Amino acid sequence: MQHKLDLNKVLAWLAGILVIPVIVLGSYTRLVDAGLGCPDWPGCYGHWSWPTTTADINVAQQLWPHDPVHTEKAIPEMVHRYSAGLFGILILFNFIYAWAKRTALLRTSTLLGLVIVQALLGMWTVTLKLWPIVVVLHLLLGFGIMALLARHLLITHKVSLTLAETNPTSIKPVRRWVYITSVVLWGQIILGGWTSANYAALACPDLPTCQGEWFPAGDWGAGFNFAQQIGPNYLGGLLDHPSRVAIHYTHRWGALLLLSAIGVLVWLLWQLKQKTARYCALQLMALVSIQIAIGIGNIVFQLPLLLAVMHNICAALLVISWVVIHYTTSRTIPRKQC
After folding, report:
1. Distance CA 68, CA 74 (A)
2. Structural domain count of the chain
3. Is 165 assigned a catalytic role?
């Protein structure tokens, strides 16, 4: 029996496969201080790739005298832009196909709209010189697009997993705690983005204390001033040390809060005594444990690039795991397993 190729599923899967590398490339670009590797947008020093010849570099330096050409920074910036552009094209094709077939119109339209906004945020990240608010929104929307795409894949493939197969009422406390956990998880992602955007990851070099104190002297007002001035170049961060301490330490407490929230969710899932529920519980607990271990490693080893990138990857996997759990707990009508 021949199976007809479903282009909608193929496009969704291609976009789903590409979204995590795009997020990873974005975090890598930020971590190697290449966010302003190209001072213009969408090109790079007036080129569609980056200036390579001596003549091109000399012209670029004349046009952008305050932004010296660093090829090692221009390359990751442009690779990230082109991978994001390819992802956007896949989402556009998925949208066109969905409208042609009159299926999944709301999801594909929302995805396309969010990708357009994300492209604008990418442009403003450069033109506004890494303004922290824009950097955080860019990160947050990237994770949001990934989460929506993951749910789109689950629905498109008609995944029939449900955690309410036997007793729908038993899932109610789990479903309630899934939403509570989502607030803590997304709040921690915002805190992580704010920590990175303000270069506060190394503000506390010791563990478990910060600067040798359990309650370090930090400037929380300045650290969480979301009305920072537009215009300065924020590469390297402009906040003073007490402000960065406040951001970093808040992110640490957020990690403990997230661990607690997920711990409760894991316990509730385990109480369902279902194979799927316990698999989700183990997966979620493993991911949050790895994420906290990586966070500790970033402090102990002074933010090595590999661990810093892995911190972003694990955060993405945590979001996907949450999406799967939300999907399975929100479905109360059991379907026959494939």
Report:
1. 11
2. 2
3. no
